[in-house]
Amino acid sequence: MQTIRFGIDLAKNVFQVHGVDAAGRVVVQRQLRRGQMLTFFARQPAALIGMEACGSAHHWGRELQSLGHEVRLMPPSYVKAYVKRNKNDARDAEACCEAVSRPTMRFVPVKTVAQQCARAIHRARDLLVRQRTQSANAMRGLLYEMGLTGNKGAAGIAALVLRIEAADPAIPAALAGCLVALARQWRARGTEIAQLDKQILAEVRQDRAASRLMAIPGVGPITAHAVVAAVGEGRQFGSARDFAAWLGLTRKNHDTGGKHRLTGKISRAGDTGVRRLLVLGASSWLRQVRAKPGSASPWLRGILARRPVKVALVAQAAKTARIIWAMLTSGQEYRAPSAA
């Protein structure tokens, strides 16, 4: 019998495959080694293949699509509901096969190689930033134990690094060795981050969509690049609110007994990196607005007048996300609201 639908449980070397025919009868249930995957599916007629959106899923999605199959990736949390008890690879593959057939299932678009590379740049940059911050905090803590302090921010740690490199007599000689190593690491991470920033800026200038997004207040090259790398044209979302909800910038919903209630906290679901960049951009924009109140829109002035600053900050980030979705899907330029 012809298999019309497959479910695949992905792994590093051994893959579990579950296939059913048009009547829902199981016709394939086997394990495949990594080298057997493409050979096996090249012999199969075009079919619908469901997989969890996990490690290497986008790679296998592209490979299977090139063989003529329709591939749909699903969030693992949505597939979990279809897993029967006594979880194993066979049950996971069966759950993928069942979940991909559901008309209400939500799917993750298969990313291109360019999108995955762009996302990797941001992951590497985030790691380097964390390492630089760890080095700075370590130097501050060690010097503080010796009664030496520095000002807050990048300028403060830069001044401490200069004192370390200049062999300040106030720093004990026994401590200087490890501090010099930390200072060297701090400078190296800063250089590497600057190189990635230049690469991101060069790619943004060549990307029309990302360049248009930079016209939005609070959106710089890093945010614009991260958004385009994450969602492309954004057409997988039905509305601007769906995009904001995917980023975790909408309030949690709790309905029961016909009563509808929105909690005061945002869900913080979805892409943490993009959400963080939007919130940081909104924070920068609000600092400018509070310094020059006349530059703010009536909506933002109203939010700042009646709500705490941090609430207004998140509200601005959510509004920015909706504007980004509208610009990506429509192809239009940014139109600033009137401050009148």
Structural features, described:
The chain contains 13 helices and 7 strands. The chain has 340 residues and is an alpha/beta fold. The protein has 3 domains: 95 residues, YqgF/RNase H-like domain (Nucleotidyltransferase, domain 5), CATH 3.30.420; 94 residues; 121 residues, no CATH class. The strands form 2 sheets. A 5-stranded mixed β-sheet has the order 3-2-1-4-5. Helix 9 runs antiparallel to helix 11. The longest helix has 34 residues. The termini are far apart.
Percent helix: 40-55%
Low-confidence stretches: none
**N-to-C SSE series?**
EEEHEHEHHHHHHHHEEHHH
Strand order of the largest sheet: 3-2-1-4-5
Biggest beta-sheet profile: 5 strands, mixed
User: How many strands?
Assistant: 7
Write down the overall mean pLDDT. Answer: 92
Number of domains: 3
What is the helix tally?
Answer: 13
Radius of gyration: 25 Å
| Terminal-residue CA separation | 69 Å
The SS-based structural class is alpha/beta
- The coarse overall form would be globular
Our estimate of the beta-strand percent is: 5-15%
